[in-house]
Amino acid sequence: MYTVFIIIAVVFVLITFLALIAPKTYEVSRSIELEHAPEKVWEHLKFLKKQQEWSPWAKKDPNMKLTYTGVDGEVGATSHWSGNKDVGEGEQEITRIDEGRRIEQDLRFLKPYKSRSDCYMDLDDLDGNRCKVSWGFSGKNKFPMSIMMLFKSMDKMVGKDFEEGLQSLKHNLNS
């Protein structure tokens, strides 16, 4: 009985230690420079339905069910998705728009696990015919997910998807 108590105590101390040193937040972002006028690119960022045309997750599940509420391209517009194991279920809501420059969204994952992230897309005019798009998100790692983040990097898990999405955006703009 004493040995079982010692094992439980060691496990408890280990979990507590890992929880204390685990990263409490995450931030992932990627950028791309495009040979297009910012006005043209903005139309692909502002609207939730247009975002689906270059979303890397739409490619992972072409049969994903999407529903939209609100006025697309305005604060409060929401898209809800439900798909396969690669995309799960969730919703994104436009929370702020700085017309032609920045769009912010509340990204809520419902399945396979619940989490919430702040998502943004920035558009910077480089010279009138070129622009830079930065796409990113940030959030808090809650226990026990925070302990998992000691062994997995959110940047490595999601960064490649952002890169793929930005490349798809570039491809769509060039088509």
TrEMBL record:
InterPro entries: Polyketide_cyclase/dehydratase, START-like_dom_sf. Pfam families: Polyketide_cyc2. CDD domains: SRPBCC_1. This is Polyketide cyclase/dehydrase/lipid transport protein. The lineage of its organism: Bacteria, Pseudomonadati, Bacteroidota, Flavobacteriia, Flavobacteriales.
